[in-house]
Amino acid sequence: MHNHPSSWYTRIILVVLILAAIILSVFLIRQYQAIKHLGIISTEHMHFADVVRRRSLGTPSAAFIEPWMTFGYISASFHIPVSYLTTTLHIATTTSAYPNVTLGRYARMIATSSAMFVQQVQEAVKNYMSTTR
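Now predict its structure.
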């Protein structure tokens, strides 16, 4: 009972294709993670845009601010200068990663409640939006 040579070639080709698919998948996942880390794509932004569409008429509301958001993200989303947040919230300019630190992480850095700090940021954003309209 000899296996036909073409069945060996078929098996070899199948194994090679499976290995190529696995290698390509690993490569694509690593590239996606690298691009996401660089901030070129952002699932958080997609989430926030979806929340805004579902809950409002397209105008962002300070009530949508959450601990996962960074100061830079809030600044861009609400068209607020980063310096306004720095001044209003008394953030030390020596804080590492500012404005790319999340509100939750910054709250832990200054030993305060995340919910309380998010509320302070919401108030600062509301105040800014009410004075610029």
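The first helix runs from residue 5 to 38.
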